[in-house]
């Protein structure tokens, strides 16, 4: 991958999974001949795909004058399994890791993250221990993830992707967090397949704001692309926001039947 100077006027910050591509499970009835592979699994086989509309969007975002910056919850290894070309900055680990155009971790961001994570370690560890106990009783699997050399996120998954036990576990975690002194600094995010506890204050939004002010101040227009409610923060930090038709975010907004005021 060749690094290009990021001199583009338009910068697009884009979530990846379920925004720019998704697995076949999320594409029932799609004609496989119209799909373009976008990621591989750990065995190197195609795993997620772009629809024709997503391919057209990517073509446009890959054009002259636009810099495309992924903003993903994937860790650096999983980001490496995305086969789309990225030439500029990359945000991984839900915002906690920022790679420069040459693929090196941004040291300034990494040291800010490490300092903030130090303070949150007791709360993160407590949340992790509690969930490990609850999840075992509910038949769910718990993993812990690191960024800047420190644990930052606990992820819970159900082996059969059953949303009901995950929802019950989410309630338990939320109740604990509501009464915790670090409550404003942490949050729980999730979808039908998984549930995560991670820092709120170091997320995708903070990473996008850091890049905008420190490295991309020349941008005349910034776009935020995301499918999930948890993407809203960074999308709101951009000039315009773009969200896919069947994504969690649009479904939530439509279901809320918001009053016009
Ligand atoms: Mg997504």
- The beta-strand count equals 13
Helical proportion?
Answer: 25-40%
Number of helices: 7
CATH superfamily of the largest domain: HAD superfamily/HAD-like
Q: SSE order in H/E notation? A: EEEEHEHEEHEEHEEHEHEH
Radius of gyration (Å): 18 Å
Structural class: alpha/beta
Describe the strand arrangement of the main beta sheet, using strand numbers: 5-1-12-13
Question: Which fold name corresponds to the CATH topology of the largest domain?
Answer: Rossmann fold
Distance between the termini: 48 Å
Biggest pleated-sheet summary: 4 strands, parallel
Please give the domain count: 2
**Architecture of the largest domain, according to CATH?**
3-Layer(aba) Sandwich
Query: Would you tell me the overall average pLDDT?
Result: 94
Shape designation: globular
Low-confidence stretches: 1-6
CATH hierarchy, class of the largest domain: Alpha Beta
Bound compounds, each kind once, are: magnesium ion
**Range of strand content:** 15-25%
Keywords:
four-stranded parallel beta sheet; disordered N terminus; binds magnesium ion; alpha/beta; 13 strands; 2 domains; Rossmann fold; 261 residues
